[in-house]
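Q: How would the structure tokens look for this protein?
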Amino acid sequence: MQIVSMRGGPTTIFRATPRLPVRLAQPMFLPNAPSFAGRAPGLIGQPAAMARPLAGDSPVTWLGEFRGTNDTIDLMLEYARGNEGERNVKVRQYAEAIVRQLRPKDYLGEILAIRHWCTSPRLRYANDARHVEQVKSPFRVLTEIEQYGVSNLDCDDYATLIAALGMSLGRNARFTMVGFGMPGDYTHVFAGLQEPRSSQWIITDPVAGTREAQMARTAKTYKHISVDE
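A: Here is the predicted structure in token form.
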């Protein structure tokens, strides 16, 4: 099985054992970008070295060895915290647009607004390929929305996007892996955002939709991973 990394700009995921880390160059602004309604300014990273790209993909997508769920979580953490997540100007602009009509310091409202936005038709749930674990950066997701009107995501993509949007507004974020069968067999992941006044963690899982509470009750095993550490 292989893992696919999908960023907004040139991407490097290596065919190697073990998978080599991605090193990003200093962020830079996209010059002369139009307003938020079009292509908003963003941050991009340049690859440190090049591996073999997938043909016909723009921006470039790279394959690497997949060794288990820890690889997925590591990539989600990198994307949520990095230059195509919390640090990205486009991500911040989308977050501001999502909460613009709310009262100041309505932190719970901000979290719920992010969750509601992520259930809109512009984001569509789609499974990964049978033998490929695919992870998209938040910047890539937002770029696909602007290019095609819709982006296809699975649970790890949703969780990464929500964590990046929440952190860009100052919220603590975490990923929760859950399983519904044997202990330690994780089959789903979602993001949680912390409401600062109550310190309560709010489940934000567009994949579960209105069945979030039922999903949480039926989980047999779970593990929290802080995105902030």
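Residues 155-168 form the longest helix (14 residues).

Residues 69-226 form a domain with the C8orf32 fold fold (CATH 3.10.620.30).

Upvote if useful.
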